Amino acid sequence: MAHREALRELQSRLASRLQTARTEGVQASWLAVEAGGRNFLFPLAQSGEIFPLASAMPVPYTRPWFMGVANLRGGLFGVIDLAGYVDDAAPRPRSEAARADCRLIALNTALELNCALLVDRLAGLRNAAAFASSSPADEGAPPFFGTRFTDAAGRHWQEINLQALAQQPRFLSISD
């Protein structure tokens, strides 16, 4: 019970900080998430609302990374497992404890795509000062990969341009 309350508090604080960052200027530039054992950064201007993991209704004859559709605040959203999409693989099984940390990150409404990305864990907000170095995306990386950052602890963070992701033909074509 205390674990759930702590998660709710964290989500509430993140949502509050996200809203403050949007209204007061650019203090934080990215929403940091973990998916499939990797660290990703979503630009705040392209990120939407954060939702707890909701059960998605499976859709037949779709790619393995397409989890189905979910009702999020009265809207119908396609749910995509981010790690599965990046690796072009089926979503890996998650324990009940791991599912408690999972979140759905909706794309910003300006991108005009009712879609939410399933991530394993929220890691907070980041700005440029949180990183020790940066480099362009690796050669051969997907076109939606942006800058690759390294933090002071040596962890690598891959920026994902959500607008470019939302325009990828493979992302838009969920049929198998």
Structure in a nutshell:
Pfam families: CheW (PF01584). This protein is of the alpha+beta class. The protein has 5 helices and 11 strands, in the order αβββββααββββββαα.
Provide structural commentary:
With 176 residues, this protein is an alpha+beta fold. It has a single domain (2-172), classed as OB fold (Dihydrolipoamide Acetyltransferase, E2P) (Beta Barrel). It contains five helices and eleven strands; from the N terminus they run αβββββααββββββαα. It has helices at 2-24, 82-87, 96-101, 162-166, 169-172; strands at 30-35, 38-43, 47-52, 66-72, 75-81, 103-107, 115-119, 121-126, 131-135, 145-151, 156-160. The strands form two sheets. A six-stranded mixed sheet has the order 8-1-2-11-10-9. The longest helix is centred in the first third of the chain and has 23 residues, at 2-24. The protein is globular. The termini are far apart. Residues 27-171 form the CheW-like domain. It holds the Pfam family CheW.
